[in-house]
Design goal:
Length: 110
Amino acid sequence: MCMSEPDRTNCPVLRATNAMGDQWSILILREFFLEGPRRFQDLQDVLSLSPNTLSARLKKLETAGILARHQYSANPPRSEYRLTLAGQALSPVVNALRIWGEAHTPDLEA
């Protein structure tokens, strides 16, 4: 764990949070664990996220090897995103966040 290393510039916790550590990225991942492969518009509809922000987060998750884009129609070109094996390995992390949230955070007001 990086806490015992004097130089924390290559800490695995730092690398993990760089790959997927912001709120929107984690909520995007939640959608893949709940629904499976997703299209851009599906994610935008559920998350009510601006197209620019969603696009940036999807690109970040793709670059990190967490998501992969797959074309499912050539004409017109259409794609969906899927979890990679590395993305699927985040299941216990997302589940731990859900369990912690259930135990330690109040329900949001509607």
